């Protein structure tokens, strides 16, 4: 039987913990989850000599990009929590028997923040993103139309995961998770360099697949909650075998991108051995999560694989820059 919190229980729990407001808002914004923000060091390395022709300007643009990413993501997860609070799914998934640290991540459920406070915070975060990215566009050394359009488009859509359009409720959850990473890289790379080369596109795709490849394991664990609120993830819509095939296909796509870039000449031949640890760990993740059913450990491994992949991509880009300068 699923445990839920009554309003009085939630209020009592919030009063008992009574975190100071900034902590409640930090938890609401999920500031401890930084995996998407790793796009900034990737952008810095991927920019190369062209993007760093004016170091001070590029540094300011990257800082504004980061501020916009943090605030847009804060708006996204805030509105997602508001939706989960209103439809009761968070109360069901984070009942009174949940571990205290896990439950504290839902300040609306615990009563630490009110619905109105959360909604106001979400809009303020989105406004801060608008200011930050407008500044990045104004100061960017290049403004190709496709890059500007990408920034504007993602500002308009990036908070609508489960708000307004509710994209994740219309079969786009997995696409959205990957697209968040894609739009955090390629448009801003265009602002820094004025172009989008083949290797930059490959790295953009790989970056977005990273969060997706720990998100799909979370979705297996979230099937009851997602089904109860009508969120049609692949895990909800398919059988366990069908979902396993989907996870395998996404994992294989990452390998194909890495190998294909090396074979086609978009990346140097050593790109494949450099990224080989990611491929090997991806196999281990699949065996752990799908083969053995240890979903939470597979998800955690996916987070670590993503961070490793970004570190390796940054190293590849820096080595390429050194080679070009030699």
UniProtKB/TrEMBL annotation:
Q: Which GO terms describe its molecular function?
A: prenyltransferase activity
Question: Topologically, how does it sit relative to the membrane?
Answer: Multi-pass membrane protein
Q: Which InterPro entries match?
A: UbiA_prenyltransferase, UBIAD1
Gene Ontology cellular-component terms for this entry are:
membrane
The protein in question is named 1,4-dihydroxy-2-naphthoate prenyltransferase
What is the annotated signal peptide range for this record?
none
Would I find Transferase among this entry's keywords? yes
Question: One GO BP annotation here?
Answer: vitamin K biosynthetic process
Subcellular location(s) per record: Membrane
Key words of the record? Membrane, Transferase, Transmembrane, Transmembrane helix
- Please name one Pfam family that this protein belongs to: UbiA
The organism sits in which domain of life?
Bacteria
Question: Any stretches that span the bilayer, and where are they?
Answer: 33-54, 60-79, 121-139, 145-163, 175-192, 198-220, 241-263
